[in-house]
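SAMPLE LOG
Freezer: B-3
Tube label: C17
Construct: single chain, 256 aa
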Amino acid sequence: MSPSKTLLIEIRKDLAWITINRPEKLNAINREVMKDLLSALDEIEEETGVRVLLITGSGDRAFSTGADVSDFLELDREEIYRFAELGQKVFDRIESSEKPSIAVINGYALGGGMELALSCDIRVASERAKLGFPEVNLGLIPGWGGIRRAARLIGVSKSKYLAMTGELLDSKRAEELGLVDLVVPHQELKRRAEEIAKTLSGKSSKALRAIKKITRLGSFMDIVGPDLEKEFLADLSQTDEAKSLISAFLEKRGKS
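STRUCTURE (predicted):
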């Protein structure tokens, strides 16, 4: 595998682990992370011996807290649009991959981090995990397919509620709603995730591919949704309100 500054990549027999490695930023996702993810996914797709992909975050605090909004104040509308486009491409690649994927949620999965988890086929969460779409608190929206994917899992109304309120869910509530498939004790998280991955690796790859393809069909929002997300996120990122909210958020985070 090609070296990466932002990811840790490990192949263990027929399993591939991708770990976002920015613990000092709570594994926030910037353009470099996205580009590294895309390259890693391309290489793993070509690894015929790899049957299942597992994705997690470095450290014990966060799977990923989403887009690194410290960049947003410096990016113009076109750059935000292209960042949203890149994120959609990466998460669509995960969802459409012939290899099953498991999100191993070891802590906060917020905003784009939750969108990343939702692009995976299965989500296993630590009892410590917190999930949500807090973008609205910054005058923004999820731009990488998260609302659409959440709507498929838990329905339109509950998805709108989460995106409009910015409410954070503990892992048990996320499991009750259907956003998470399994909640386990924190110290057992990776072991249990690998057990599931090994179960999948023993199944018919053709059958798994068929299941993935079938469950992706039938959502008309996939036709217009991606373009709407990019347009709205890019427009909102340039408003005075969003810039003020992001600045206040970054200032508060710097003091904590």
